[in-house]
User: Which sequence fits this backbone?
């Protein structure tokens, strides 16, 4: 997802420059707020997730596999 949205590569450096942070110490103080803001913007509450697990009885004939589309 990071590559798609480029949050850390494009957005955070701009925010850091806008805030005028010049030293690692200043960034370390600001980073928890930056992470909290990011999580608030992009996270999904746990209550909205759906359990997709499926219980199978023990059966030696069941085989799990997946196929990847070749590019």
Assistant:
């Amino acid at each position: 997802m990071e590559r798609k949205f480029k949050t850390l590569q494009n957005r955070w450096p701009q925010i850091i420059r806008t805030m005028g942070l010049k030293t690692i110490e200043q960034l370390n103080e600001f980073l928890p707020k930056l992470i909290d803001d990011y999580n608030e913007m992009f996270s999904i509450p746990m209550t909205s997730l759906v359990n997709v697990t499926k219980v199978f009885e023990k059966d030696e004939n069941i085989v799990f596999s997946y196929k990847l589309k070749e590019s």
Q: What stands out?
A: The chain has a mean pLDDT of 76. Helices lie at 2-5, 7-19, 24-42. Residues 24-42 form the longest helix (19 residues). Residues 2-48 form one domain.
